[in-house]
Amino acid sequence: MGSTDGREQRVDDEGSDGSEQENVLTPPLVRSDPADPARRTWTGSPVPAGYPEMIDELRELLDRVATTAPSAEVVADTTKAVAQLNAWLAEYEVDEADRFAGRLLAAPGRAQLTGPPLLVDEIDDGRMTGRVRFGAHFLGSNGVVHGGAIPLLFDDVLGRLALTGGRSRSRTAFMHVDYRAVAPIDTELRVEAWFEREEGRKRFVQGTLSHGDTVCSEVSALFVALKPGQR
Fold first, then answer.
1. Is 132 among the domain residues?
2. Residue 72: which region, alpha, beta or left (left: phi > 0; alpha: psi -120 to 50)?
C-alpha cells in the first residue's frame, strides 16, 4: 500500500445565514484509520449489500481469463459483455473518498482487485497476522506466484501495520524483499508482519510470507510519517 492514508471524511457545513453549503472534504483523519481493528469500512458512502461478492466474482473472472484458451467466438462475446459492464459502471463514478474498492476493511483484500485477497486474522499495535491465496492470474510460471505480486502484498500489509496504534499517515520510503522459496498459487499462505523499531517519523517494519513451515519471502521496509500538508 504505497499510500497509508487515513480515512477522508465528508462533512456538511452551514453558512452564516443557516443555508447548507456544498459538501467538502476535510483532511484525512489520523485517529480513525484503516488499521483500527474496530473499523469495517473506510469510505464516506454506505456500502451496498453484495459488493464484496461482486469483487469475488471479478477475481474469479481474472482467474478464468488466466487459465483458459477460449474460441474466437467466446473472446468476441466476452469482450462485448465486459465493455457493457464498463459502460454501466462508468455511470456511477465518484470521488475517491466515496469509493468502495480497497476500503472495505472486513472484506478479503479490502475488496481491492490489484492485490490478492488477504484475510486479516489479527491486527494490533505493532503486529499483524493473516492468510492469503494468490489466484491463477498472479501466476508467474510452473504453478508459482509471480515475484512482482509478493511486494505488492507486503506493501499493503506493512502500510496498514504502520498505521496501528493511532499513528499518523505514512508513505513507503524503502522496501527490500528476499525470496527464500517459491510461493505456490491457489494455496493458503501465512502472512506475518511486525514493528522492528521507530525513530522519530521513521517506522521500520518487517514481515514474512510462509507456506506451512517454509518461509517463502521476507521483507524489511521503512515507512515515513507525513508532515502536515503532505499527501
1. yes
2. alpha
